[in-house]
Specification:
This protein is an alpha+beta fold and 143 residues long. Helices cover 17% and strands 34% of the residues. Strand 1 (41-46) and strand 2 form a beta hairpin.
């Protein structure tokens, strides 16, 4: 009959190595995933109107779609990177891709008064509170 001797130090080292291996695999998979473009936003209220400002650098207004559904303002589009043939990047840190951000307002939105303006990479949306029942969904033209 064989006798096994339990060594707590060896067991702690084995468990520590297993945890380190698991963390390394998890971190490798996390940081190897490509980043996605997610524009930053500010939402402020002034003079009973709500203003949403989104940073959309490198986009054209034709690349942006703005809709109002119920009380939610949705901005979606795609940030593209123009590449040329026979080009080699030494560093490529700019994030590209499609995006979609929705902002649910805590009040009824007056869809007829929603305005949007795109200047210098900043999309500014002005929203007023509705005084009557909401209309069907509506696309908003960006000026």
């Amino acid at each position: 009959m064989r006798t096994l001797v339990y060594n707590p130090v060896k067991e702690m080292i084995r468990m520590s190595n297993a945890i380190a291996d698991s963390l390394e695999r998890e971190l490798d998979s996390t940081f190897s995933k490509p980043a996605c473009f997610n524009p930053r936003a500010d939402i402020v209220e002034k003079d009973s109107k709500v203003n949403i400002h989104l940073e959309l650098p490198g986009l054209k207004k034709e690349d942006i779609k703005l809709t109002v559904v119920d009380n939610a303002i949705t901005v979606e589009g795609e940030k593209k990177m123009e590449t040329e043939e026979n080009t080699r990047y030494y560093i490529n840190e700019r994030i590209t891709g499609t995006f979609k951000r929705s902002f649910k307002m805590p009040f009824e939105v007056d869809r007829d008064s929603v305005e949007a303006k795109f200047t210098d990479g900043i999309l500014s949306i002005t929203i007023a509170r509705a005084e009557r029942a909401p209309e069907p969904n509506k696309n908003i033209e960006i000026k």
